[in-house]
Amino acid sequence: MSLLTKPKEQSQGGRKRWVGPALWAAAAVVALAAVVLLARWARELEPIQDFLLQYPGHSELPANAPVGIPAWLGWQHFLNAFFLVLIIRSGWQVRTTARPKAYWTRKNTGLLKTKAKPAKISLELWFHLSMDVLWLLNGAVFVVLLFATGAWMRIVPTSWDIVPNALSAGLQYASLSWPVENGWVNYNALQVLAYFAVVFIAAPLAAISGARMSPAWPKGNAALDKAYPMEVARKIHFPVMLFFTGFVIMHVALVLCTGALANLNHMFAARQDAGWLGFGIFAASVVVMVGACFLARPVFLRPIAGTMGKISK
To answer: 7 in a domain, yes or no?
Structure first.
């Protein structure tokens, strides 16, 4: 009798697992609809209309701010996205993998030779740390180019009116009547604050907390461990990963919804038109990132990691 009822019980259990996510999805749709309706109603109010006229959603840039999107920003954008996707993927694997299939130990030779025995880490953690290093190196190049070319003025607030303009841009987004600024010349205030937070707040927090959690952190230094406990780093690192994940999702969604061809040409082709070149480069980059995620498996990672250390089970 139990054998006959078991499939039915499993089926009911499977349905129950989907009830929670389905309810959350429905609640999210209802909440988003309510936000849109509320924003559209608010825009009909005379004080709000006066506010939008006074603060259109973007601040004026300094007179010497560069105009346009340089070519170097296109390939930097791709590399940042490429490394970030792999970092998020590998970081989630490190967090959720209970029994790693392989481990990596660095070679204790040459300049890396130390008296202490090298730490043995999972292959997932090795890949995560490797992507971290590449992402940080690329980020350093990005910041140098940002200040060398004056492009920093496009993503660093230079006036306090950035705050009311960000509220204005947020209201425009919420009402599905997108801000009308020209991204080739100037980002809207909400974009400026988001990009500033990513480059100058979230990225350093990810690096500092990641360094504390990595095997490179000095062992046995009680004073240093007390000044910066592991628990603090963990409480910072995971929320920062969630922030980056949310930013990527929102960023891609808004790029595609607010004039995909023009936006992608700005970002990937350094062109101010609505042609298909930027979309083609974007599509190719997505294929590359999906392929990299597929190849980021132990069977493919072992040979690469083996050139830098010892692989064991």
So the answer is: no
Its domain, for residue 215, covers 43-312
Q: Does 71 fall in a domain?
A: yes
Q: Give pLDDT, residue 116.
A: 64
The answer to whether residue 250 scores a pLDDT higher than 60 is: yes
CB 48 within 8 A of CB 42: yes
What is the number of domains present in the chain?
A: 1
pLDDT tens digits for range 24-51: 889 989 999 999 999 999 999 999 999 9
- Judged against a pLDDT cut of 50, whether residue 1 lies above it is answered with no
